[in-house]
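If you are new to this repository, start here. Below is one unmodified record pulled from the training split, so you can see the exact layout before writing a loader.
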Amino acid sequence: METAVERWKIMLNLRAQQMDAAYARLGRTSADFWDRRARRFHSTTKDAVVHDPLLRRLQDVVTAHTSVLDVGAGTGRFLLALAPTGGHITAVEPNAAMLGYLRKDADGQGLTNITIIQSIWQDAPETLAADIVICSHVLYPIVDIVPFLAKLIKATGHICYIYMRATSIDALTGHLWKHFHGDERRLPPGYIHALDVLYELGIYADVEVVKLPVILSYPSVDVAVEEVSEQLILPGDDMTRKELRHLLEDWLVERNGMLVPPVEAMIGAIITVQK
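And here is the target side for that same chain:
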């Protein structure tokens, strides 16, 4: 019987094989994935964060005397919301495009209590520590999960918040993946798998299941075609784009002036580890 850690690695290896094969058919790799998606990620998460359950939780505990470490900070949706009333915040993020948006917004708000470190978490300084550690939607591609989690917990002075979905965003577009690629989309681990790994490591976490906003939203069908084509790793020829456009027109619904998948919310969880 496989362990939780083994199951985690199997899921990610199968997903990597599927995605690498799809990229190889296009003569590409996933190396510049976030460079291409940073702009839209910034705009969609920046708008959605005000309704985010984790932000509400963090606002209850972060004060001017609280230090915060945001691991995988992205474009800074949480730390930018917390910095005006919080203590010192350290952002660890490997992608330069993401950090470009973070720096621009931080400068625009006149924030001076943010330290930015461009690095993957595994290579970040071992001395990093804070009262509160945030790791939001970061664990999904991490194959070597045990040392990653161990470093998170070691850096935590008081509380570590690990934020994950129950099922991947790719599950929403799984029918489209199968239409074009012919096989079922391999999904990354969800929060229940992370919880299982933590339990196996002897770390007994609290869990709050929450509803998350659906961040797949598009101002037009043209934008939807561009972004979903990237998500599905499709070729850019006219025939494929036309076919995808028809599928999206039949599937997406209009809500608050945007085109979105026909679901009200996604399910996720705030996993809390207290020291």
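Two things worth knowing about this chain: The longest strand covers residues 156-165. The beta strands are 68-71, 89-92, 114-117, 130-136, 156-165, 206-212, 253-255, 258-260, 266-274.
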